[in-house]
Design brief:
Elements: E1 6-11, H1 16-25, E2 41-44, E3 47-52, H2 57-62, E4 68-72, H3 73-79, E5 84-88, E6 94-101, H4 105-115, E7 118-122, H5 125-135, E8 139-143, H6 150-153, E9 159-164, H7 168-172, E10 175-184, E11 186-190, H8 192-197, H9 199-210
Parallel strand pairs: 1-3, 1-4, 7-8, 7-9
Antiparallel strand pairs: 2-3, 4-11, 5-11, 6-9, 6-10
Length: 212
């Protein structure tokens, strides 16, 4: 019976192209994946690629849908699932930041002194909750899915915790950084059982490390 293909999840979006590039440098066949269209699975000799939403990558790894994957550290932290982080791939650098509207710092601080609670909007409730707890800030966390920059501009929230790479979107929306929350880069991760039982996962981790 032929060997089961090694199943690898790749994230859609900004990490997709550099993920293909480093897998290619590691010796894997990625031909035809650069422009996948609507196709979500690609089979190569001994390999099966799945192209999934970045936030779903940890889920596929944790529940055995794939053996290994490339995923942003931000998605790993937010998912908080049982998987093994093997290699920091270095690309896709971004950072979580706490931001507020320009010129509003004193007003927000004064409001917090009087009310004892801030309203903070974020698409990343787990990361945000952990940060706020470490900072000793009492906050009402507002979970959002998009257009998060609008929340403080329309009075829904005092501050926002979001991801930025260049800061350009923040500047365009007249938001300024109050604090750095944490940094994120792409990581190579594996399902614990696959890491123990499939030498190809360990071999790929070694090859990826040599490509850095």
């Amino acid at each position: 019976m032929s060997e089961r293909p090694l199943r690898i999840a790749l994230p859609k979006g900004t990490l997709f192209a550099p993920s293909l590039a480093i897998l290619g440098r590691a010796g894997l066949d990625t031909g035809g994946l650069a422009d996948p269209g609507r196709q979500l699975t690609f089979d190569k000799p001994g390999l099966r690629y799945l192209i999934v939403r970045p936030t779903d990558v940890p889920v596929f790894v944790n529940y055995g849908g794939v053996d290994c994957a490339i995923c942003g550290k931000d998605s790993l932290l937010e998912a908080d699932l049982d998987l093994v982080e093997l290699v920091d791939l270095g690309f896709g650098a971004c950072r979580f930041v706490l931001v507020e509207p320009e010129g509003e710092h004193e007003r927000i601080e004064e409001r917090y002194r009087h009310s004892g609670i801030l309203r903070v909007a974020s698409k990343y409730p787990r990361v945000s909750s952990d940060y706020l707890a470490r900072a000793g800030v009492q906050a009402e966390l507002i979970k959002m899915h998009g257009n998060i920059e609008l929340a403080p501009l329309v009075g829904m929230a005092d501050r926002v915790i979001d991801i930025t790479a260049t800061g350009a979107t923040l500047a365009e929306n007249h938001l300024v950084i109050v604090d750095e929350v944490l940094a994120s880069t792409a990581r190579f991760v594996a399902n614990p059982a696959s890491l123990r039982t499939d030498f190809r996962v360990r071999q790929l981790a070694k090859r990826l490390g040599e490509c850095l």
